[in-house]
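Input.
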Amino acid sequence: MAKISKIVKNEKRKKTVNQYSAKRTELKKIINDPKSSIEQVDEAVMKLQKLPRNASPVRVRNRCSQTGRPRGFLRKFGISRVTLRELALQGQIPGVVKSSW
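Output.
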């Protein structure tokens, strides 16, 4: 089980990313547009730098929805490998069975 503070911090980051996502996409569009003037690009870069660091989606960490474990995360299920194994052995995940050969 991960520390509650780390889980809460990650949730706060997700909220910040959602809050600033529209503004970030507009600024990125100006920066990457070849038709933008140098002044427009410089202004957009400055505005982008003024946004909070946690507004960047790269700073959000994928965590297990059950335990908060940051490593061994499986995107398809949204849980860690350890939790997946436990739930699969209990028969809680449909279509997933323990293999044997």
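The two ends are 32 Å apart (CA to CA).
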